[in-house]
Write a structure and sequence with these properties.
Elements: E1 3-8, H1 18-32, E2 38-43, E3 48-52, E4 55-59, H2 69-82, E5 88-91, H3 97-107, E6 111-115, H4 132-139, H5 141-153, E7 158-161, H6 164-171, E8 204-209, H7 218-225, E9 232-237, H8 243-251, E10 259-263, H9 267-276, E11 279-282, H10 292-299, E12 304-307, H11 312-315, E13 322-323, H12 328-340, H13 342-357, H14 359-375
Parallel strand pairs: 1-2, 1-5, 2-4, 5-6, 6-7, 8-9, 8-11, 9-10, 11-12, 12-13
Antiparallel strand pairs: 3-4
Helix pairs in contact: 2-3, 3-5, 7-12
Domain Glycosyl transferase family: 200-343
Domain Glycosyltransferase subfamily 4-like N-terminal: 17-190
GO molecular function: glycosyltransferase activity
Length: 376
């Protein structure tokens, strides 16, 4: 049994995206299952002390995102001032991992760190087109900061990438000699979708849920619609910098009247979208660390078509549903296979995520690594 400090830049309800949801699930599941004696969250998204889902949360400060040395310096000083006394520190959501490495060394306390993003890696290395601001930062300050930040990361005892793809990126970018163990995100056992009340038709309803940026590959899904039968419809849920360009691209296709963009919608409407869909599509073109929407779609009993790159490729059990990144023809072929076999694959997916990603399976993996770093 262990006292755990979970350090994360943000914690729900602040910016409750996939990373924050995963951090909350970890903390609450550890607490609910008595997997550790005590779990305390330290976050940097305000100044307050509260209890969220039974877990004490200390929000110590607001910190900027860039340059990385600054938020890590602030976080390190705030944590030292608070004086946490854990047995193990777990760094989550990437941006403050150097501060946790430094704190681990100062307190002589073992630390583990989940790897779920690539902030210290030049984005071109992971097939992401950087903004002008990000490109300028990579060529100037990050180039100077990176050696020191990576050196602080070396104090972390064990890295926990969400997928083998994440591990490989970090092995290729400064952490080749570190210790790794892949532990995926866990599903949310409280997640549910409403019953599908729609009438049976010959329509095939495709669904994409996520941020609209170039790395998500939605443009290739739109292009694939031109190669799919007329009964296939696509709903795109989400917003982002590519929305206008994607809307314009869709308008120029023969399938324009079969493609709907909803923009951002409340979470309860997202679950409605899962219930209304027949096939979920995740057409990314970069080594995305994981993909929580994929888990949700599989929990909802949907077949999931994804591209054969990054964490999603580790998650999809049917090889026929892994398309070539950036290839509309390959996407359309996988989509047609998914649609023709959707009932069988939907049942397989529900069972697969329950067997592999349920907290009953994932939480013991975390408990084991905490115990291991304490022994070592």
């Amino acid at each position: 049994m262990t006292r755990l400090a979970l350090v994360t830049p943000r914690y729900p309800p602040t910016h409750a995206g996939g990373g924050e949801i995963s951090a909350r699930l970890l903390a609450e599941q550890l607490h609910a299952r008595d997997a550790v004696d005590e779990v305390v969250v330290y976050s940097f998204d305000g100044k307050s002390t509260e209890t969220v889902g039974g877990v004490p949360v200390f929000r110590l400060a607001d910190v900027p995102q860039y340059p990385y040395s600054l938020p890590n310096e602030i976080a390190y000083r705030k944590l030292r001032a608070v004086g946490p006394d854990p047995d193990v520190i777990h760094a989550y959501n990437m941006h403050l991992h150097p501060a946790v490495g430094r704190l681990s060394a100062a307190l002589d306390v073992p630390a583990v760190a989940t790897l779920n993003a690539y902030p210290l890696v030049d984005w071109a290395e992971v097939n992401v087109t950087p903004s002008f601001k990000r490109r300028l930062y990579e060529r100037t300050l990050l180039r100077l900061e990176r050696p020191r930040l990576l050196d602080q990361l070396q104090n972390i005892d064990l890295f926990l990438p969400l997928s083998s793809a994440v591990e490989q990126v970090y092995r290729n970018n400064g952490l080749d000699s570190a210790n790794y163990e892949v532990i995926p995100n866990m599903l949310d056992p409280s997640f549910s979708v409403p019953d599908d009340g729609s009438e049976e038709t010959d329509r095939v309803r495709l669904l994409y849920v996520g941020y609209l940026r170039d790395t998500k590959g939605v443009r290739y899904l739109i292009d694939a619609m031109d190669q799919l039968p007329e009964q296939v419809e696509l709903t795109v849920v989400g917003d982002g910098p590519e929305r206008d360009a994607l809307t314009e691209r869709a308008a120029g296709t023969a399938a324009a009247d079969r493609i709907e963009f909803t923009g951002s919608v409340p979470y309860e409407k997202v679950t409605r979208a899962y219930a209304d869909a027949d096939v979920f599509v995740h057409p990314g073109v970069w080594p995305e660390p994981f993909g929580r929407t994929i888990l949700e779609a599989m929990q909802a009993g949907l077949p999931v078509v994804a591209t054969d790159i990054g964490g999603p490729a580790d998650t999809i059990p049917q090889s026929e549903l892994l398309a070539t990144p950036g290839d509309p023809a390959s996407l359309s072929e996988s989509i047609e296979y998914a649609a023709a076999n959707r009932d069988r694959i939907g049942r397989e997916n529900r069972q697969f995520v329950d067997d592999r990603y349920h907290p009953d399976v994932v939480v013991p993996q975390f408990h084991e690594v905490y115990e291991r770093v304490l022994r070592d």
